[in-house]
């Protein structure tokens, strides 16, 4: 019989954790429960931990973390219990779901009724978007709406995806981040005859090669980029980037901004890169990255997922003179997961995806897990696993 | 016989003019000379006058005004003399040119050899782009490479366009600014099923409705926008905007930034505009305009043609959270003039294009002309005409 | 009290009508009933009448008309009765609906679950798309799923739109056709620097200017086309086209295909049009229209909504050599109606939209109505109105 | 000293060859001469050999092979002699060229003056495009404008590209075909959120995997396709396709059209492919391929480079009902060669590019070479090498 008490790692305030028990949730015909195998620690979780708790600032979706929460949204697990209709209706691509099937989920819950849902479905511009692991206070039932838990409750309006048999949990846990690299598919859309975005053979710079940046490196390679340049302050991460497809790396250590910009230009016949993607979460990376783009180049702001303050920008120099195309990208499309997992399966032999998860901690060691996640010289992806004994 | 001495209005330093004589230029088989009818005073000329003399900052095309110059590039005039091959080769669309034909020209001289010219011809991303009225010191022959002059020398590598017979000079002088509104054609390209850019029926905000902004108002109307909102500090200009197709106007006078942002939202079902175009030349307009765009909205930086310094931007709030698509637009395509003049002819009856030029000054009254051009409550487009007697 | 028996015009087989009574439908909390003011006769209805009864041939949505049906889907009417939740949930843009409100509806019912609905929501690529007035046999309850009726039943999964107060019924009835002209918004998306689609100032040919083609003429004008050429066999329709914005007309009478192709080229500097839209419903129009497009031109197949057989095409000549971009367009986005009605309101003074409906027949005179609809020299849009007495 | 008499393989009429001598050409300051290492036999050459001699039919560029010609345009060789200015001006990306440098060239000569060159430079929509190896009668000086020759004369208006040192001749000879796969970059441009073109993880069908189709297989892989299906009648070629990245193959032998269409659907969850590319040169492949595309799928007509007659198409079924996006693609952009060679170098270790050239024949054995080129069960790319002794 299933344990009626579910262990979770709760963030009660920025920087503060508590291991708590919640009742195992009741499901109706349209929902299900996942028994978790693991759940990643994501940059968003780190923003929240540091007290950067405002998301979607200035938009109708603006949110302030409703502590206490159960963090975590890079989820992989197995169906523990499933409602009658959920079995045939909840899997995104229409597959039947049975108890024991391995699944991942998209953290975003979309309202389906606002202007954006009506006019641009498929991408979470939703005015009322709310994220698992982030937007739901765990004081209220069904409590279990975050991934650092033994079980997670899946609402009828969530998006769940069956994991192909050939992917084990340590690779399937990358599905969300691979879906996030839709950023590069988007940049690629802009490509027309050398004008914008990047074509096959073009140059892509990734600023910051933590887990999210690393997946962008691999995706740039998958999409046919001709030269991929990774930038980071951690040599450990830069070596990872090389293994995931980067051609060149530039360290923040011992270099000035001007030297790094010059280094990118030197690698691109003096021009700058076709596409630069910010995966750092740091505002100061942005003017630096804008200088690294070529004329008509594309700059993707993808990492500053929480409000981290202002930075001075010179609109003539950074936008107009260079004819920059800048894309602010938050979230990713629910429709991207199926192909994400196809790519993870297809490129397992090309990139060492099995080394992506570097550390596993049971959720009752959440403090250690989080500490490791911040150690950019020792860890790539840290995941939280079920509670021990 | 033609006068051998050509009168010009020379800018010798920011804010300083001198009326000078230069020899009438010799032409070869591939060039021509235009006898000017009029030449507009453009925002770029005003930037230079104020000492904002760095253009294309931070790019390979970066330029610093090489005083003394003959300013002026919104040119209309008649062919005064034409070389043998120029007669059949110089007109952009392949029309034959004869002495007496009315023409306009594109100010940009492209190198034709750099990466951008080779890979993206059609839009001046050229690394070595140089502009008539701006980038050529008039100390050196052929001297006459600016429009505030009785004659202008047209290089073999320039772009010249025959004016349709139905356009008189006061409308033809708008050709360049109408070509600049390609900014909106570009924004429209991004439109896909409500996602980005603007579709027919969409909302467009124009920040600043001087001559350049005013043409954007008309163009937004021509492209099927459903609601056009003009913003300016001058009631005179806002009235003009209404006559050129704006549905709503917002004055900077007596309103705060927050009130203006709220006013735009109130006009757009609370969402913000699909597209916002900066036509102000002022850095501080940019964060305000970014707040006026809806989620996934498009922001076009078009007015800060010279370096006017920095402004604080919040990358989470202004770019990522709202999923902004920002386009930096400098220059315009040489291929845009033919259609620009078609549009000027087609919409003469719809918009009062004949009221666009509000003031004419002979070039020996250049100081008065410039003073008037800065008087945003009395003048729309001020033009310089040939020297008197 | 409401009459419990609803009069309808039923098509029992191709070419055969019967006026029948059905019970007034019962609604639940999520549906509503419209009392019709009028409903257009559309080209699709004419296809069905002629026995061209296969739609979406060769696709998962392939349908064969399930006679008997109540035809008609260009619907305008007033809310007669409305369920409790429908009042706040059914209107597309989120407006509250009350009894007496004027509404239009989109005929398409989408499944919401297939690959296309999941991945490309917003455009009816739906594998199971079914249309009001077409895909529902009226033998079964709720019977009233077509517009040639005194009342129509609106399912909870249908799309309904409140009509702006300034539009009377004879203009609101155009909403669907205006939404269909999304064809041109789509073609415009392809535009990049003169390459494809059409820019402002470009040339658009409309083959066939019955009601659907006529709306495309107006829309091309609204979108800033520089020259619009209408082709038809009826001088009556060609005069209409001139009034709705066509610059030039070409009659099929007394001209050969080669002459018409030549006429289009003569109007386009010898090049052919940027965009050609087939609005004829006749297969033989297609090779002719393909010859009218310029190199790299865009050809939209929009009129052959039912299977009308084969036509010989030369793939080298018609596709490859000319680098044609061909778009097959069926249906239109549900999200297009709001802007459609905005455009109808905005351009009422520019185009004589009030002359679009030329004939009204009560539904018990359906035979006369259909006969008139086929009389292309006397009628533009024929509508069916409620039964008499 | 250089031999003053140059040996060439001349096609004097369809199916007829003659080995002829021409004088070594004189160059001026702006042109150069290449000593050939090898030159491929292309599908276009085979069309001409079979008497399919009309190209660009129905367009202003329509051409009829002006026999006698020196065929061949997939060229690789070394600079034998070079004019003074050619040395610094002729190489596309601005590199200096010296005698002995290995180069490839783009066969297309563009006029630079027509509407298309002015408005859409970068892609040979040119009204007057003429191809090396095809459009120049060799009776007239400089005679040597085709690749089946010991030397080739390079006009000042041609496009020449220096070969990276790491590419040997047998790989460099693939540069043009790799540039032709721009077809897929183009199809990818249409991708927006699952709607059109193909995203990473999408499905691509290549009809016909001779040399051109084979390169499309590799390119689809490079661009991140998730499933690549190759179709051909030769098992030899299908095995090649597997080695170049195809996931699945379908043979024309022993299958009906309906079975092949069904096979594609079975591999794509019943939907059909996102993109289908015709690389067969056979008209009858087109309706079959159109049936293989999913709703909203993209069909690229790329192989029927010469007029091969008509085929019946059902416009409702093949275009409208399925919402097909069809792209007719002829030629390829001159700007594509630099990146083509980058990709050849980058993916040498992934695909067995060194096996692509299967047969080499000296040009005095041109009959044998051509016979082998038609033997689709024994040869992939057949190249012509310099004359013996």
Could you walk me through the main structural features you see in this protein, from its secondary elements to its overall organization?
The structure is a homotetramer of 389-residue chains. Chain A has 389 residues and is of the alpha/beta class. In chain A, 25% of the residues lie in helices and 27% in strands. Chain A is built from 13 helices and 20 strands. Chain A has helices spanning 43-49, 86-89, 115-120, 169-172, 175-180, 182-189, 211-222, 235-243, 257-266, 285-292, 315-320, 337-346, 366-373, and strands at residues 5-13, 16-23, 32-40, 54-55, 63-64, 74-82, 102-106, 108-109, 130-131, 151-154, 159-162, 203-207, 227-232, 248-251, 273-278, 293-301, 311-313, 325-328, 357-362, 381-385. In chain A, the strands form five sheets. In chain A, strands 3, 6, 7, 10, 11, 19 and 20 form a seven-stranded mixed sheet that branches. In chain A, strands 14-13-12-15-16-18 form a six-stranded parallel sheet, sandwiched between helices. In chain A, strands 1-2 form a two-stranded antiparallel sheet. In chain A, helix 9 (257-266) runs parallel beside helix 10. Strand 18 (325-328) of chain A pairs antiparallel with strand 18 (325-328) of chain B.
Write a concise synopsis of the structure shown.
By secondary structure, chain A is α/β, with parallel strands linked by helices. Helix content of chain A is 25%, strand content 27%. In chain A, the strands form five sheets. In chain A, strands 3, 6, 7, 10, 11, 19 and 20 form a seven-stranded mixed beta sheet that branches.
């Amino acid at each position: 019989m299933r344990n009626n008490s579910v262990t979770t790692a709760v963030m009660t305030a920025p920087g503060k954790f508590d291991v708590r028990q919640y009742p195992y949730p009741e499901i109706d015909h349209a929902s299900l429960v996942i028994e978790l195998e693991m759940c990643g620690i994501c940059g968003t979780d780190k923003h929240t931990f540091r007290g950067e708790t405002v998301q979607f600032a200035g938009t109708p979706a603006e949110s302030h973390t409703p502590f206490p929460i159960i963090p975590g949204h890079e989820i992989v697990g197995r169906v523990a219990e499933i409602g009658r209709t959920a079995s045939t209706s909840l899997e995104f691509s229409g597959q039947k779901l049975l108890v024991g099937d391995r699944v991942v989920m998209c953290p975003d819950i979309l309202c389906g009724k606002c202007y954006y849902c009506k006019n641009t479905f498929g991408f979470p511009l939703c005015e009322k978007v709310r994220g698992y692991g982030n937007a739901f206070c765990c004081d209220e039932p069904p409590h279990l709406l975050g991934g650092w838990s033994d079980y997670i409750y899946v609402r009828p309006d969530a998006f769940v995806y069956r994991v192909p048999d050939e992917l084990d949990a340590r690779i399937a846990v990358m599905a969300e981040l691979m879906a996030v690299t839709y950023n590069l598919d988007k940049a690629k859309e802009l490509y027309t005859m050398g004008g914008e975005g990047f074509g096959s053979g073009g140059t892509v710079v990734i600023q910051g090669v933590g887990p999210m940046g690393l997946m962008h490196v691999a995706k740039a390679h998958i999409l046919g980029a001709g030269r991929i340049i990774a930038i980071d302050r951690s040599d450990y991460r830069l070596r990872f980037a090389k293994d995931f497809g980067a051609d060149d790396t530039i360290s923040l250590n011992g270099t000035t901004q001007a030297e790094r910009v010059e280094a990118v230009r030197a690698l691109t016949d003096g021009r700058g890169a076709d596409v630069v993607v910010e995966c750092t979460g740091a505002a100061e990376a942005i003017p630096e990255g804008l200088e690294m783009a070529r004329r008509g180049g594309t700059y993707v702001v993808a990492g500053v997922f929480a409000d981290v303050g202002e930075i001075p920008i010179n609109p003539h120099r950074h936008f107009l003179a260079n004819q920059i195309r800048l894309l602010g990208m938050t979230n990713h499309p629910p429709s991207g997961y199926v192909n994400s997992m196809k790519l993870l399966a297809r490129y397992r032999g090309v990139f060492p995806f099995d080394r992506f998860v570097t550390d596993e901690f049971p959720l009752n060691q959440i403090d250690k897990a989080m500490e490791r996640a911040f150690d950019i010289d020792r860890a790539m992806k840290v995941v939280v696993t079920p509670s021990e004994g």
